[in-house]
Specification:
Elements (H helix, E strand, L loop, with lengths): L33 H13 L4 H18 L3 E3 L10 E5 L6 H6 L6 E6 L6 H9 L2 E4 L6 H12 L3 E4 L17 H9 L3 E7 L5 E2 L2 E2 L5 E4 L13 H21 L2 H4 L7 H4 L7 H4 L6 H9 L2
Parallel strand pairs: 1-9, 2-5, 2-6, 3-4, 3-5
Antiparallel strand pairs: 6-9, 7-8
Helix pairs in contact: 1-5, 5-6, 6-7
Length: 294
Amino acid sequence: MAHDRPSPAPATDEARPLPVPATEEALGRPDIDRDQRLALHGNVTGKGVNPIVYWVVRAFFQPFFHTYFRLSRIGREHVPTEGAVIFAANHRSFLDPFVIGAMSRRPLYFVAKKELFRKPLQRWFLNSLGAFPIDRGNADGDAMATARAILERGDCVVIFPEGTRTRPGGIGRPKRGVGRLALETGAPVVPIAVHGTTHVRKGWRIRPHKVLIRAGRPLTFPHVEQPTSELARQVTDRIWPCVELQWHSLGGHATERGIGVDPELLRPELAPGPEARELPAPSVDQEETRVASR
């Protein structure tokens, strides 16, 4: 005689708890506190870059970029060779600060998210190259004060106005910090576009891929001691279209996944007016008159 087997009890949330993702603290990588961030800021405002580390790394990376990534640098004549400079660039990859560094013969200082400074060795390496942490998502006045100090002594700072890496697709929308920094220091702003670094990294593998970087003409703004938020936003709105123009000139609107549209549709204010689009062809009489007037 067959015996009825008791059916198993249905699984409940108590019997089968959901896995909880491990935090950085549980993994042994606690976030750095404000005192540690200030110490890293003090290194770049006081000692600057570590010259041995910086020039050894540059001596390796620059030939590597030219051979492995077939790096093309466009507009280097627009980069000032002396004095304070703000490089305002789009952000696609962790390689962007190093690629932008190839545009200038001077050391470039750049902000990086504080999460990158958790590991002691990585913290020392990045800080030796001129990186200092920023607390993203908060109004990090310490990072902005450090950037101002670097510019006031006549050095260069790289700013990513998007605030984070933007991929795939086109470039994102900027935050107003770059406009405030330009007004508070009076430093010229060089618009920079980096293209191709999105496709370089796949997991931990660095793949060969063509990388392009283009610099536009420097933009200058009046020096304002305490600019308002609205004024900082207006200056940022003047800077970012110039970054977008460099991006479109490198073909970013057509080659990056998620875009594939005319840049005029992305920023109609950058499109030429109707009179520039539909100029009629000159008649024969007009052409003869033009030639005769030479």
